[in-house]
Design brief:
alpha+beta; Cathepsin B, Chain A; 9-stranded mixed beta sheet; 9 helices; elongated
């Protein structure tokens, strides 16, 4: 949902309205023709919204930089003691159907982004299996190989050193691999990218060894494709709208077999670990590998996880690096600061019996009509400790702000370009280096954004300092 800049005050400043949101009602000021005079220090375009960005010498300007390189983040929705069955949607996934996790590109601005296909693919598998929020560049810092491509052992080292978890690794047949994904796993695969048809490649002239993330398998792909894998390629460009695609299974099998010497070199995880929970569905007969024109076999599915799984070859991918897209650096890099300005509300004085002349005319009402207004709106308190900690673009076109709020406080993050529409950021509670935080993410292009956190908790309404985030330039 988007709202005009003029109504930001109604959503994030007015204590009455925020209280109404909690009780399922909203207080409105019905507007008429523009007032003849302006509130002191408020611009005309903000007048109707009842708020303004005003200079505030009491708030010193502070820098809002990126989080420490090796700080680790995990979503609170991941609970190691309460794991879902492997075929059910995990609370930390974004969807029950592919793609189940956000795409992660290797082109994140890090010094080894060109050779980080394994690490970026591993970051996606870590999100699926354990609710871990990371990038290919951070994964690279957590293991020991600091040059060229990496292998699946390096990838597993990174998640163990950072979060104390593991991936399973193996050298699997295509039948075993299909059954594994059909049972709910996600996987990282190593392939010869040159075996992928040019029209499927996300970089047409790249033909080297490569790692990709496989999110799912289906016996019946879209548009009559037949058996297919949902592939999220780390050389895809999410900032251009890339979100993964269904690829024919026989093409992926061929590219994986060519790299792995007749089998898949792969690492996998289910929601919460390396072993499936609950009963695993049998792979349908039409999901079995078979040559064109032949009927699928009717044998029962093998176990989704071979016991023990053959060890994969110690092979690296990424040495033959793809080209770094020139536009990736235009939507990365954040110059962040906060303080020096504040949101000034004028709605409170407009709700009095004798409102000033700058107030919009009308009456205060309750919406919906059947709603019950809160008996005592919580006061807007300036010292509710909402602390903005870090701001960065961990992926091109994705802004991240990390902040803390008191226990029981229900925050809302709002962002906007000057003169543009106000939108809500996606907020998720997380743990960072053992401490509770909130992670706000929202899409950005090159430009300067304002960001503020507001909300309710412990009988009061609060608002954070206003952050100014300039995105672009790498």
């Amino acid at each position: 949902m988007t709202i005009s800049l003029r109504t930001l005050g109604l959503l994030v400043i007015s204590a009455v309205v925020m209280a109404g949101a909690t009780f399922g009602t909203a207080s409105l000021v019905a507007q008429r023709s523009p007032a003849a005079t302006l509130a002191p220090g408020v611009s005309p375009e903000d007048q109707g919204g009842g708020f303004g960005l005003q200079p505030d010498p009491s708030q010193p300007v502070k820098t809002l930089g990126p989080p420490p390189e090796k700080s680790v983040i995990q979503l609170v929705s991941f609970n190691k003691d309460q794991q879902p069955n492997s075929t059910d949607q995990a609370p930390w996934w974004t969807s029950s159907s592919p793609p189940r996790i956000p795409p992660i590109t290797q082109f994140d601005g890090g010094p080894l982004q060109g050779v980080n296909c394994v690490m970026a693919s591993g970051a996606m598998l870590a999100r699926l299996g354990y609710g871990i929020v990371t990038t290919g560049t951070q994964m690279r810092t957590l293991q020991f190989d600091k040059s060229g491509g990496t292998n699946l052992f390096d990838m597993d080292t990174a998640v163990f050193r950072g979060w104390g978890v593991h991936f399973a690794r193996g050298w699997l047949s295509s039948l075993q691999f299909r059954a594994l994904l059909w049972a709910g796993a996600g996987a990282v695969i190593l392939v010869n990218y040159g075996r992928i048809p040019v029209d499927l490649r996300n970089q047409k002239n790249f033909t080297g060894g490569h790692a990709m993330y496989a999110d799912a398998f289906t016996p019946n792909g879209p548009n009559g494709m037949g058996p297919a894998y949902y592939i999220i390629d780390p050389i895809g460009r999410p900032w251009r709208g890339y979100n993964g695609d269904w690829w024919p299974a026989n093409i992926v099998d061929d590219a994986a077999y060519d790299f792995g010497g007749g089998r898949y070199v792969t690492a996998w995880a289910f929601a919460g670990g390396t072993v499936a929970r609950g009963s695993s569905p049998a792979l349908p007969a039409d999901g079995y590998p078979h040559k064109g024109g032949e009927k699928p076999p009717v044998n029962p599915s093998p176990e989704p996880v071979p016991t023990p799984a053959p060890s994969p070859p110690d092979a690296s991918a990424g040495d033959d690096q793809p080209s770094i897209p020139p536009d990736a650096g235009t939507v990365t890099g954040t110059d962040g600061k906060y303080g020096g300005v504040s949101l000034g509300s004028i709605l409170a004085v407009c709700a009095t019996a004798s409102p000033p002349s700058f107030c919009p005319n009308g009456v205060i009402g309750i919406y919906p009509l059947t709603g019950v207004p809160p008996p005592t709106p919580p006061p807007l308190v300036g010292n509710v400790p909402i602390d903005l900690l870090y701001a960065s673009t961990p992926q091109p076109g994705v802004q991240q702000v990390i902040f803390t709020a008191p226990p029981g406080f229900q925050p809302m993050g709002s962002f906007w370009l000057p003169g543009g529409q106000v939108q809500q950021a996606n907020l998720q509670p997380a743990v960072m280096d053992g401490s509770p935080v909130w992670i706000a993410t929202f899409p950005v292009q090159t430009g300067t954004y304002d960001f503020v956190v507001s909300g309710l908790g412990a009988g009061v309404a609060g608002v954070s300092p206003v952050a100014t985030l300039t995105v672009g330039g790498g």
